[in-house]
Amino acid sequence: MKTWMIGRSPRQAFILAAMLAVVIVAAVIIFWRHGSLQAAQTPAAPRIPVAVAEATVRDVPIYYDALGTVQALNTVAIRAQVTGQLVSIDFRQGQEVHQGDVLAKIDPAPLKAVLDQAIAKKSEDEAQLVDAEKDLERSTTLVKKDFETQQTVDLQQANVDRLKSTLDADQGAIEAAQTQFNYTTITAPIDGVVGFRQVDIGNIIHTNDANPLTVLTQIKPCTVIFTLPQDDLGPVREAMLQQAGVSVLAFDQNDKAQLAQGQLLLINNQIDQATSTIQLKAQFPNEDERLWPGEFVHIRILVATRKNAVTIPPVAVQRGPNGLYTWVVKPDNTVDQRSIETMPVNNDVAIVTKGIASGERIVVDGQYRLEPGSRVDTKTQAVTSGPDKT
Fold this sequence. Notes:
The chain is α+β, with helices and mostly antiparallel strands and 390 residues long. It folds into 5 domains: 2-41; 50-58 and 308-380, Beta Barrel (conserved putative lor/sdh protein from methanococcus maripaludis s2 fold); 64-71 and 216-306, Beta Barrel (Elongation Factor Tu (Ef-tu), domain 3); 80-107 and 184-212, CATH 2.40.50.100; 109-182. The chain is built from 5 helices and 20 strands. The protein has helices at residues 2-5, 10-41, 109-144, 150-182, 233-242; strands at 48-54, 56-78, 84-89, 96-97, 102-106, 185-187, 192-194, 204-205, 214-229, 247-251, 258-272, 277-284, 296-312, 318-320, 323-329, 335-339, 341-344, 350-354, 361-365, 376-380. Strands 1, 14, 15, 16, 19 and 20 form a 6-stranded mixed sheet that branches. The longest helix has 36 residues, at 109-144. Residues 1-7 have low confidence and may be disordered.
């Protein structure tokens, strides 16, 4: 190098250095433009389409679920209380009747005769009593004049007392005959719906027949018997203490349509040790008769209401090796994997106890393609809500 520089002036050296610098700058510019062109020609990563929902704050009622059976409030087998021929049936099968309505009649003639005999017997004994009282009065007057003995008076008094007792027995016989006669008209003891007729007109009906005339069931109101695990007993009892009436909802067998709303009536006084369950009974007004005795229904019993809870759709909750998480969409439309703690409520709502704030957008569909930092194209999905339950 020293040999090459010998004989060159400082001016020539400067020009040579300047030319070298220009070459270097040009190379840098060409390299930068080439890299920019390649970057421009490289397609950007596509946005991942996802459906999102917003975390919201609301009061969430907490329900316990159970399966129950509808029962009539009262069920009465309508039977004859006297034996006789059935001469009239005054109800239609399936008819709604009220207490006191006539359901059927038994031939009253034999029992009417017994009643008339009892009345006649009393009339006869009353006449004898009048005669005996007159004899007693005469004997009493005569004994004062020493025309009659005291023994005769005592006998007359005993006869009067006997006849009075006989009249009391006659009155009892009349009342018994009247009662039997009244039983020939069969009336409804309660409000309800009559079932199938099991005895036809003209047959002799007995008090000890195997089959009743019909069965009358009271379905307004009605009750539902259901069971819960014994671990749920504490919260349910607490709800009964805290609330004036514990609300109970009845749903159809598909657990979709609500049939009725009622209140918890009682908790059974013993736990079934074989199944570790406790029976409960709820009562429903059932004015529209949507509940029918023997029907299986889904029951939801309100035990508490969680105030100001942060809620998200359960489909947003994912399970990973480190526990539960969800995908959160940040303001720049990139996603972040967020660890959360939840309390499941039902198929529509999950309560987030830690990890999510109200108003944050969370992914409810399309999670399987996501990675932390992925850009997304969001579409808001409506959040359905229904009666919450655990």
